[in-house]
DNA sequence: CAAATAGTGTCTGTGAGACACTATCCG
DNA sequence: CGGATAGTGTCTCACAGACACTATTTG
């Protein structure tokens, strides 16, 4: 392979290279507060942020200290940014197999005072139960959940305000345009549970209205009824259970009622 | 601002950093071949690739020589990857104001034999007319257009096969889910011209069937008729002209006929 | 029984899809 | 006039949305 000769002569330091390559994660969860038994839960979409500590892990003053930020860290040479995000999410929540998706790159000159640092932004969907043992680590004073309204009023580190805005846009879009909502739900769920998840990100009356949504769910090709099974967790009358199947979704804005 | 003290102690070389940060561009165009007058054009989606030259601009053996590749180059410290892509596209086509969109990051260890090199992938939509004076440059032997069927049979450099597959997926999706199709069309277009663009990426009968699509176009909120104007460029009978307006599109898979 | 959520019967309007037709212009 | 594309009239079926109702369970 003639690449060998070319490689011998290639000077890896010919170009100015970035000072850092990092991965950040917007960890979303839906808190579902069941006020009473036999009631559908009230759900709220929340984002997990850390408050950067005053001193870093080596005892030196930390950059952007005391500001709120997305969890994240430096990508290692042996991994991709996505793998790095998986690793960090594992370290943070102790859980693997979490829905994780890349949604943007942030590399504007000056975005990080430490130098030319590029970050890959991901969002993760973590069931609330997996966040119970969330904990501050070396770099963080506190770990807290914020609603999407609260979060933009915080004092945020770096360009994380912009990243978070994009993250909210990305998850909203994906919840409505793909079947990622399944990651917020148990395997078998009632119409009102799915509805509650979707209502956290849309005001669409077709989703908010009980009968419309109830009728619609039966006609969706990517959702099927679980035959025979019912649950009482949302009401006194037993409710049918549904599950996502693997039918692909996808059409065009030119062909459907939009 | 207490960042100052932190910055003084921050060692920018603490972490292993990437060996390069690049931007690649999948330049798409639709070639429209009008076989006869008064006929709608037959359109085909094509991708512009360069063939890497044997020697680089400094006369040394080039890496991945003679393979086909996406145009691209190193990002400079003073710009973002997106700006770098804009600059490269300008250098390549001599045109600005082109539709350009980031669709992915490729950073798998080993993807580039020269080292730890991260690339940002973008796709661009360039009207065929703006590609007429396309030309080989220092790094490229040839510049050519390929159909999406042809392109995957070529000997492609680096991981560009994967990037190109993703680019095709991204543009297909965007053409059907957003109004980017406008970038392939004149400001005022006939129903058959829009139809021809969409047919390059979908087999949906609702788009292929004349009367269905003709009726549908009138009801789309983001397209409006240009009052009074007609054209004969696609038929003997004068055809109505339409234009995109700025109504936003967006709904959910749970609420419409999918 | 009242109360609360789940779920259905039915009507109306709208639009998708199919068929057949008309309209306009060129040569 | 024939031929080609643009565009309409009309019917049918399916579904969204609204209203009013029924069903199942708890306390």
From TrEMBL, chains A, B:
Keywords: Hydrolase. The keyword Cell membrane does not apply. CDD domains: NUDIX_NadM_like (cd18873). Transmembrane segments: none annotated. GO terms for molecular function: hydrolase activity. Residues 20-172 form the Nudix hydrolase domain. It comes from the Bacteria. Pfam families: NUDIX, WHD_NrtR. The keyword Nucleus does not apply. Belongs to the Nudix hydrolase family. This is ADP-ribose pyrophosphatase. It comes from Lysinibacillus odysseyi 34hs-1 = NBRC 100172.
């Amino acid at each position: 392979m003639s690449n060998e000769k070319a490689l011998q002569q290639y000077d890896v330091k010919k170009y100015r290279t970035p000072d850092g390559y990092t991965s950040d994660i917007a960890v979303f969860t839906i808190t579902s507060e069941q006020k009473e038994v036999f009631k559908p839960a009230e759900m709220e979409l929340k984002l997990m942020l850390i408050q950067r500590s005053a001193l870093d892990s080596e005892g030196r003053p930390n950059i952007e200290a005391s500001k709120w930020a997305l969890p994240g860290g430096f990508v290692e040479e042996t991994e991709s940014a996505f793998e790095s995000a998986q690793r960090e999410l594992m370290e943070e929540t102790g859980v693997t197999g979490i829905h994780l998706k890349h949604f943007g790159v942030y590399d504007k000159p000056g975005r990080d005072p430490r130098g030319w640092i590029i970050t890959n932004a991901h969002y993760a969907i973590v069931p609330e139960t997996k966040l119970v043992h969330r904990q501050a680590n070396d770099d963080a004073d506190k770990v807290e959940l914020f609603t999407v309204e609260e979060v933009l009023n915080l004092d945020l580190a770096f360009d994380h305000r912009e990243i978070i805005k994009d993250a909210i846009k990305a998850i909203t879009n994906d919840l409505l345009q793909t079947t990622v909502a399944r990651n917020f739900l148990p395997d078998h769920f009632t119409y009102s549970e799915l509805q509650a998840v979707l209502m956290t990100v849309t005001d669409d009356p077709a989703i908010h209205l009980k009968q419309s949504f109830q009728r619609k769910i039966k006609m969706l090709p990517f959702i099927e009824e679980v035959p025979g099974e019912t649950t009482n967790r949302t009401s006194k009358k037993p409710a049918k259970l549904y599950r996502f199947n693997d039918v692909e979704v996808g059409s065009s804005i030119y062909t459907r009622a939009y």
